[in-house]
Amino acid sequence: MSMTGILIVAFLLGFKLMVHTWLMLRQYRAMSKGRNSVPSSFAQHFTLEQHQKAIDYGKARLSFGLARLWFSGLILALWFFTGALNFLDSLLFFFVPSSTWQPIALIASVGLVEGILGMPWSIYSQFVLEEKFGFNGSTWGTFFSDRIKGIALGSVFGLMLGYPLIWLMQNMPGIWWIPAYVVYTCFQILLLWLFPTVIAPLFNKFSPLEDKELATGINDLVVEAGFKSQGVFVMDASKRSSHGNAYFTGIGKAKRIVFFDTLLKTLKPQETLAVLAHEIGHLAHGHIKKGLILSLVMTAVAFFALGWFATRADLFIDLGLSPTHGVVLLVASWLGGLISVPLSPLMSRWSRKHEFEADRYAVKRSSAKALSEALICLYRENAGSLIVDPLYAAWNYSHPPLSERVQAMHEN
After folding, report:
1. Beta bridge partners of 246
2. Does residue 184 sit within a domain?
3. Which of 89, 212, 362, 400 has a 20 to 30 A CA-CA distance from 345?
């Protein structure tokens, strides 16, 4: 491995770790300073006890996230700098001599190793951290059942995508990334189509909404917006967590509206309708389509870069790696994650802009009072922090802080 290769990867990895550590520590200090008093604009909505629970929960999540960030960085460094990836790649050639199946075996093996290493973190998050603050609704049986199903689905879908990509790399050198991009795009669309009716029901139970009055209000909103869906469903989210949410999912005729059962238990009917109006606002403003187009463009750029990267054997030699197909795909995905770090604040800003637009749509279809009270209630029940460091939010928040959203919706 050349010193140049070491320095490039070390710089990229170090930049990611330093930036996220700095931002997390800023947020941690901001929450610590604001722990003993509720912000004046929310004093009538949150007791000091509720506010302090949110602060303590947020700090615990930050501490956990910071530790996991550095652990993940350590694992990535080990793959790059210890020869572990080359060793595993060479070892698998003895057990899987096929030039097509060996790269798939390598990617699967790396995924298995990282999954095993990540399991204690998931267990701690679910059964220690979430349990401590009263949010855990999962049992050990549900937890491990989810993991087994996830591994099975990941294996099936990974094979469906991985085999064609490897075959194209082997049989269409130079231009393989073009049909690979088409295959990947079709695969993503297939997943969007299958998710609401095939994938999601493997993990949760979806029941038709039984509240007739609420269903009528929802239907009125949907008809007014010209939105067509397969129906309105309630998901048994409480079997895993007490956090509440709602979302649209699917494409084409497979689209459906989903409410967490925890959300319906928390919000009043008018507040629930305001949340739905917000989600419809995303559709009305074309945010879903814009997001899909942006994703297609960024994916095309990524595949173009991957095609160029795969031809640069010298870069892999600089990194002390063998430019086999499996190594190329793994290293490209890792480096892509590091190189794209500066894009985070831009993507977050773009997302927050869409949230403000959806809020304005919801206010016109319901009211600022209903939407703001719904958001305040969700923050209170989910222990969302009212104290936010501006730089941390600018980099990480896909949704504007509560204070900004409430202020904006009452100004319009």
Report:
1. 259
2. no
3. 362
pLDDT along the chain (412 residues), means of 10: 74 95 97 94 93 96 97 94 89 85 94 94 95 92 94 92 92 91 92 87 88 81 75 86 79 76 87 89 87 91 89 80 88 90 93 94 90 92 93 94 90 69
Domain of 247, CATH number, reads 3.30.2010.10
Classify the phi-psi angles of 286: left when phi > 0, otherwise alpha if psi is within -120 to 50, otherwise beta: left
Nearest to 255 by CA among 312, 207, 194: 194
The answer to the question of residue 238 being in a domain is yes
Q: In this predicted structure, what is the pLDDT of residue 2?
A: 58
Three-state SS at 228? coil
pLDDT value at position 309? 85
Q: Are 332 and 311 in contact (CB under 8 A)?
A: no
Does residue 162 lie within any of the structural domains? Answer: no
3-state secondary structure of 234: strand
What's the CA gap between 276 and 258, in Å, rounded?
Answer: 10
Domains contained in the chain, number: 1
What three-state secondary structure class fits 36? coil
Burial of 219 per CB tally in 10 Å (0-12, 13-18, 19+): exposed
Q: Which residues are part of the catalytic machinery?
A: 279, 359
H-run or E-run covering 249: strand 246-249
